[in-house]
Each structure stands twice: as structure tokens, then as C-alpha cells.
């Protein structure tokens, strides 16, 4: 059955997929990896420079039985962007599905 909405329309769900699992949540963050400041003789900051934007993403997923868990340092393409996997958290519980949390980054100058 199709969803029925009353009132205003809002974004719903998760964009992007990963083969072999169900994506449960996605968090994105953009920040600068290279930040430098200049202070004057009184110690007051007078210049701040930002460079090297880092596009970071954290993905929580529930794997299917055939899912091959990636390794830290490998590549992952999500929503059309190629990321480097920095870490993988593995959560298991007695009455629940296995969940993996992938923490990934896409540095501005690394292709």
C-alpha cells in the first residue's frame, strides 16, 4: 500500500543503498582537515585559514547472510561517492540482528 500523507511533505528514510544489506541510518559531516591560525603579540587570533575539506559519513547497516564485510582502508561507494573506510564497528546481541557501523571519509585531495 502506498503511503498517505496529510499536511506538509517531509523527507523520509535513507538515501543510498549498499548491496547485500539494509542501510539503517546515515550521518554526514563536512569539515576542514587543515586549519591554521595566526595570533598577534597579545595572543589574539587575527587570521584563520581553512583548507582540505573532509567529507565524512557514518553508515549503520544490517547485513544479509551473504554480505562480505569490508576491511578498514578499503573503498566503499555510497550514493555515488567513493569513500575510504576508516573503521568498522560490529555489534551483536542475543535477541537482535548483527549491525555494522562503517565510518568513512573522502578527503578533498585524495582520489
Structural class: mainly beta
Low-confidence stretches: none
> How would you sum up the major sheet?
5 strands, antiparallel
Q: What order do the SSEs take from the amino end to the carboxyl end, as H and E?
A: EEEEE
Distance separating the two termini: 43 Å
Count of separate structural domains: 1
Strand % is over 45%
Principal-axis shape: extended
Strands in their spatial order, largest beta sheet: 1-2-5-4-3
Give the fraction of residues assigned to helices. Answer: under 10%
| Structure summary, number of beta strands | 5
What does the radius of gyration come to? 19 Å
Mean of pLDDT = 94
| Total of DSSP H or I helical runs spanning 4+ residues | 0
Question: What features would you describe in this structure?
Answer:
The mean pLDDT is 94. A 5-stranded antiparallel β-sheet has the order 1-2-5-4-3, with no helix packed on it. The chain has strands at 21-39, 45-63, 75-78, 81-91, 99-107. The chain has one domain. It is built from no helices and 5 strands. It is mostly beta strands.
Amino acid at each position: 500500500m502506498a503511503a498517505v500523507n496529510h499536511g506538509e511533505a517531509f523527507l523520509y528514510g535513507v538515501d543510498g543503498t549498499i548491496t547485500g544489506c539494509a542501510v539503517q541510518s546515515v550521518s554526514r559531516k563536512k569539515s576542514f582537515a587543515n586549519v591554521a591560525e595566526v595570533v598577534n603579540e597579545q595572543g589574539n587570533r587575527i587570521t584563520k585559514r581553512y583548507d582540505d575539506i573532509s567529507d565524512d559519513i557514518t553508515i549503520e547497516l544490517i547485513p544479509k547472510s551473504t554480505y562480505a564485510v569490508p576491511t578498514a582502508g578499503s573503498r566503499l561507494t555510497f550514493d555515488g561517492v567513493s569513500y575510504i573506510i576508516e573503521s568498522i564497528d560490529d555489534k551483536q546481541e542475543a535477541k537482535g540482528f548483527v549491525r555494522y557501523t562503517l565510518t568513512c571519509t573522502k578527503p578533498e585531495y585524495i582520489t
